[in-house]
Design brief:
By secondary structure, this protein is mainly α. The longest helix has 30 residues. The protein folds into two domains: 198 residues, Up-down Bundle (Growth Hormone, Chain: A), CATH 1.20.1250; 208 residues, MFS general substrate transporter like domains (Growth Hormone, Chain: A, Up-down Bundle), CATH 1.20.1250.20.
Length: 417
């Protein structure tokens, strides 16, 4: 009986890493709960909305940059050591934020230190999970990314409770100390698998697939990089734009009450989380190009539905669930495609570069959509713009991405340019 239990634990070891990674991602995703502190910070520092948003923007920027930088070192050091280091930076940033007396210092502590820690820690579970799941990378990565996407549903109420009960500075301190205890403890079991621990899963992979490990320099020369990077920018432009206007569209276009829109936010967040394992699986099973085309098709149908169908709360709930679902999907398509196209060896560094498209998409999407709404004063033009972006994405994915294979080939076998 004891031997059977040991065998069961051994066979499910890789799923234990998924569970641990999910919790870690929930904790790291607390960075997205910054809005809970924002109003109070404006009053405390006597600043406006523009300045109060700087620590959050810097946090997202540092997150992307440090993920790229740390990717170069994942093969040099043990995964748990890097994860612990990033976790301690996250904790340090939150703790120091409780002692700041200006928005500039908060930008350094919350934005650069804590945001950088998130970037360092974020790539480790993804890299480790990808190695433990060579047979179902997309689905496994999508599962752990659910934690990051759904984090605000869990951590925002906790942060709000702490702010209301103890104050902003005390909330920063409590959360920082909590992260300093939980994250390092959760990091301790992390390691890459030995060959004999994953050989059974590797044997399930189709024999005619050729796996190559492509360096960052080689990746930049490939056609597939252009297709993946451009489409990731477009996908995040669309997703972040529609998430940004979710409330205003509900209020101004569908004439819903603020209460109704607020209640639906939890539903949208759940769909955002579900999009990650779903599109991770689709990317693995049916190719990067097909996953992208499916996403664009859903977005086009949703945009047309807003324009053509009668405005009511059911239509609004369905359509914006699809928009949020697709943004979650793109955050699984990109890492899964990076693995499938360029291999595991340089994955963290390669995906770190790919992920910069998220920042570009955020800036481009928010700025262009804001200009359209200010200039035309009509949401129809925004939806036509979204549809146009989808067609651009369809063209570029068809031109640069190969549907027949999920696997990267040596650069010399791929047409360059």
């Amino acid at each position: 009986m004891i031997l059977k239990i040991k065998e069961l634990l051994k066979s499910n070891k890789r799923w234990a890493y998924v569970f641990l990674s999910l919790i870690i991602m929930v904790l790291l995703g607390t960075v997205y709960s910054y809005s809970v502190f924002r109003v109070g910070l404006e009053s405390y520092y006597k600043i406006g909305a523009a300045k109060s948003g700087i620590p959050y923007m810097m946090g997202l920027f540092s997150y992307a940059v440090f993920m790229l930088i740390s990717g170069k070192h994942l093969d040099k050091y043990k995964p748990r050591n890097i994860l612990i280091f990033g976790s301690l930076l996250v904790s340090l940033g939150w703790v120091l934020s409780s002692y700041t007396n200006s928005i500039f210092l908060l930008t350094v502590t919350y934005g650069i230190i804590s945001g950088g820690g998130v970037g360092i820690a974020y790539g480790v579970p993804m890299s480790v999970i990808a190695r433990w799941f060579p047979d179902k990378k997309g689905f496994a990565l999508g599962l752990i990314l659910v934690g990051f996407g759904l984090s605000p549903l869990i951590t925002a109420p906790i942060a709000r409770f702490l702010v209301e009960g103890y104050g902003i500075k005390e909330a920063f301190l409590i959360l920082g100390l909590t992260f300093g205890i939980l994250l390092p403890l959760l990091s301790l079991p992390f390691r890459n698998p030995r060959e004999e621990e994953v050989i059974v899963y590797k044997n399930k992979i189709i024999d005619n697939k050729v796996y190559m490990d492509v360096s960052l320099k080689e990746m930049l020369k490939t056609k597939s990089f252009k297709g993946l990077y451009i489409n990731f920018i477009i996908g995040t432009m669309i997703g972040l734009t529609m998430i940004g206007v979710t409330t205003s569209v509900g209020l101004d276009y569908f004439n819903l009450s603020l209460s109704s829109v607020t209640k639906l936010m939890a539903l949208f967040a759940i769909f955002n989380g579900l999009g990650r394992p779903t599109f991770g699986y689709i990317t693995d099973r049916y190719s990067t190009k097909n996953a992208m085309l499916l996403s664009y098709g859903l977005i086009i149908l949703s945009s047309l539905s807003i324009i053509l169908l009668k405005n009511n709360i059911v239509v609004y709930a369905i359509i914006f669930s699809i928009f949020w679902f697709n943004l979650g999907g793109w955050l699984a398509i990109a890492p899964t495609s990076t693995l499938n196209l360029y291999g595991i060896k340089n994955y963290s560094q390669n995906y770190g570069l790919i992920f910069t498209g998220y920042g570009i998409g955020a800036i481009a999407g928010v700025s262009t959509s804001g200009f359209l709404l200010d200039y035309h004063g009509n949401y129809h033009f925004l939806f036509y713009y979204i549809i146009s972006l989808c067609f651009i994405g369809i063209i570029t994915s068809s031109k640069y991405l190969n549907t027949k294979s999920q696997i990267n080939l040596a650069v010399k076998y791929e047409s360059l340019g």
